[in-house]
Specification:
2 copies of one chain form a homodimer. Chain A starts with a helix and ends in an 8-residue tail after the last helix. A 6-stranded mixed sheet of chain A has the order 10-7-13-12-14-15, sandwiched between helices. The first copy, chain A, has a 3-stranded antiparallel sheet with strand order 9-8-11. Chain A has a two-stranded antiparallel ribbon with strand order 1-4. The first copy, chain A, is globular. The first copy, chain A, contains 14 helices and 17 strands. By secondary structure, chain A is of the alpha/beta class. In chain A, strand 2 and strand 3 form a beta hairpin. In chain A, helix 3 packs across helix 4. Chains A and B meet through strand 5, helix 3, strand 8, strand 10 and helix 5 of A and strand 5, helix 3, strand 8, strand 10 and helix 5 of B. Strand 10 of chain A pairs antiparallel with strand 10 of chain B, so a sheet runs across the interface.
């Protein structure tokens, strides 16, 4: 699997570098072509479930004023090639420091090297992880009916059984491209808070419900989203999101998980989880389960109204518009721990089983 | 082990409640006595290596104006007792929601229940985790020569071998009080960033150096600090900190790990790691290893000068004063990824082995 995935990227890098070389040898000006990365160059692909880039691109021709950026882009491509060939990887920050040895092509600040990296990523239409540039932040935590297949540094195959971590968990690595999966879970439950994850682990929920629990710890990192996406693809099982019932949970967490984000549209095909649906906590749950709430803050109201007006995902889904309007009318938000009012085991023994009886009713 | 640790807490709760009951039955006003939790009630115990509370306490007598807080404190003590007896746990947020069923003793906002929890913790001289109130945030990640012994939900013993997680890691649970440890590692390396942790895992550093790697992911959480502390105590091995070379790394991360923090002094005896010493990155490393740097920001300079003036830990250690003054004179800070300038494997093959040859030179 590793080969079929990395070989095209390697070829793309070599082809692209050869183009530049041949232009130079012919005495012509080499050009590099990068898609424009902005919301204005994005549409929502409802059928495929994520944002995607439109065709706009910027061309960078080698001139006196672009020579440094041009050189940096080529050096960065060479670094990616080396990392792929040696099965190594570099964090964004490490890549920045490596450039300190590139003489005049060295980057002065990390945002500069990050931008070049994003350009290369968009140029080749791959995710940065396939170029072996990995983010700084870790992924998320996993417990439940899943065996992850990985390798140790000597190349020996490792079977990591996520039912065997007790009160702890399997921590998702930063680079998940090479992981394989085994198991017969019925679904993946993606959870917002570490506290709720710990509650479900404590009460052995993954055993009772035959599922895989993933703790996102707030807005899911790229590694966490990619892990869930690859897991859902390979195991062909649904993904249900369980987050706080507030605009932050609905849009910053769930919408990012499912459809991706606007300013990284060139990546969404890898990082979004279109199959995901929304278990809770919904505004209706507040009524059905008599949950304690907090008043919406100004920032919540603003975020909700913005979503109704501008978010292509929300504008596409009338169910979400209805839910947001219901929340605004009620004027309250709810945390996923609110079920503790009815006892610590209520979420495991009552709420989740009741909801899972009718997954077709989940918000899209 | 579980028994000897929890029994005294349970007894303390029962004794304290009985005192209140007997006073009430005699027609007297019951009193509860809580140490004052503030920097003014703290001293630095150099020999034991952490901040500790002085004797000041506040007495809360049952009167018309204190009746609600008094009731809330007793209800919270009762909840802790129930959690201990049933081997359960509750996050701070769950405890707040449970109170929604306490009628008039319910908390209006979570900060109120957190305060009562802190008071009880200080009153009994235990850490909140011993009362089975656990934080929301997760701990850190572990890889290397360590076997963690935990139990599954059915009480079966689990052996978690931290050499077997490939590119992933063992994620430390929120409550670490009951974990046991096995192994023959030479030291624990506590690492600031997930990126550097991933680098050391990728290059199999724990195998080369026979050690345990812990990723703190920024300022270590309570669970992470308690885990390292219990690990160091049980295995009787040293703890070395490897963090960014800036005031945030020196004080917010390393100082918190080693000596605790001022506003939680009643907890430091459980959460600090007095045995810890500072591997790097030091200001001197910048010179010795010709590392790329960034200029100190205003906030860095302010934080460093504050530490020189007001931090009892820094005031006690002349070595730290010298290091801070050197940094201020150089006017630069350094990130732990800066070694990548010399190649991605430099940190593993050169820097760490060179430093570890002379651990006596580590900053205290």
């Amino acid at each position: 699997m590793s080969k079929t995935k990395t070989k095209p990227v390697l070829e793309k890098i070599v082809d692209s570098a050869r183009d530049v070389q041949q232009k130079v040898l012919k005495g012509q000006k080499p050009v590099m072509d990068t898609p424009v990365r902005s919301l204005a160059n994005v549409k929502y692909l409802a059928k495929r479930g994520h944002f995607e880039m439109l065709g706009k691109s910027k061309k960078r021709t080698l001139t006196v004023s672009t020579v440094k950026t041009f050189a940096q882009t080529l050096k960065m491509m060479a670094l990616a090639k080396e990392l792929i060939v040696t099965s190594d990887m570099a964090t964004k920050r490490e890549a920045y420091y490596i450039s300190k040895n590139w003489g005049k092509a060295g980057f002065a600040e990390q945002p500069e090297s990050d931008t070049i990296m994003d350009d290369i990523e968009a140029m080749f239409g791959v995710n940065r992880e396939q170029l072996k540039f990995i983010p700084e932040e870790k992924g998320g935590d996993v417990a439940g009916r899943l065996v992850v297949i990985d390798k140790d540094a000597k190349g020996n195959r490792l079977r990591i059984d996520c039912t065997k971590f007790g009160s702890g968990a399997y921590s998702i690595p930063i680079d998940v491209e090479e992981l394989e999966f085994q198991g017969r879970a019925d679904f993946i439950l993606a959870i917002e808070t570490a506290g709720m994850f710990q509650r479900l682990v404590k009460y052995d929920y993954w055993d009772k419900a035959n599922c895989i629990l993933v703790s996102m710890g707030g807005v899911p990192t790229r590694a966490c989203r990619r892990f869930i996406r690859r897991l859902a693809d390979k195991m062909r099982i649904p993904v249900y999101a369980f987050v706080d019932g507030d605009p932050y949970g609905y849009f910053n967490i769930y919408r990012t998980l499912k459809a991706g984000s606007g300013n990284a549209a060139h990546l969404n095909q890898y990082f979004c989880v279109p199959i995901a649906s929304f278990l809770g906590v919904t505004p209706q749950d507040i009524i059905d389960y008599k949950l304690p709430t907090h008043p919406l803050k100004d920032v919540d109201i603003k975020r909700a109204k913005d979503a109704l007006r501008n978010d292509p995902f929300v504008k596409h889904h009338t169910e979400w518009q209805a839910a947001i309007n219901q929340m605004l009318k009620m004027g309250v938000r709810v945390e996923q721990q609110a079920f503790a009012k009815h006892g610590l085991d209520f979420v495991v023994n009552e709420y989740l089983p009741a909801k899972l009886k009718n997954t077709k009713k989940f918000l899209p």
